[in-house]
Every structure is written in structure tokens, then in C-alpha cells.
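User: I'm writing a short methods note and want a consistent example. For Transcriptional regulator, I'll paste the sequence; you return only the C-alpha cells, no commentary, since I'll be parsing the reply automatically.
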Amino acid sequence: MRIGELSRRTGVSERALRYYEEQGLLQPRRLPSGYREYRELDIAAVQRIRVLLDAGLNTAQIVEVLPCMVTDDGRLLPSCPELVDELVKQRDRIGAAIAELETTRSNLTRIIDNERR
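Assistant:
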């Protein structure tokens, strides 16, 4: 299938699909005309990429973890034990960032409230 059809079937823009290819996340076959040709398996790969992006991973991280991810009954699961430790570290980094932002928001709220008195 060509990029337009993959875009329609996944809901991901052609631009994003080209970016995924640039980042090494997708490897479509190139036809002699230069057109990209995607396989049915690429639909699932794009869906996995989107889930991982939504989970806060960047494309460089996804390149590393994607080979260790499987889909089971519609759920994305790590298949490499060492990957779980890395995902826990990522989750903890996100939690720390959230805590820092909540503190910053509280400090700003306090400043705003003090001004209103």
C-alpha cells in the first residue's frame, strides 16, 4: 500500500509517516518510481508508535523499545524483561516532572492570591 492509504487506515498524517521513516521507525520498500510501499504489518507498527508517543516516549526512545513490544489482544506489552525497568525509569521521570510542575503551579497561585489581597 502507498503512504496515502496507510495514512487513511491509521489516521496518521503522511508527514508524520515520513518522519517515522526518517527516524528509522518504519522501513517501507521503495519502488523503482521512488514511491514508498508499506505492508499490512506497518499498520500495527504505526499503532504501536502512536501508543508509545502518547506514553511520553520520544522517537529516539521508541527506536530502542519498539523491537521489544508486542500487541496481545489489543494491548501493547513489553516482551523483553529489561525493557520494563527502562519504562519504569521513564514513568518515574515523568512523575518527577509532574511534581515539579505542580509545585511551580502552587507557587504561582500563591503569588496571584497575594496580589489580590
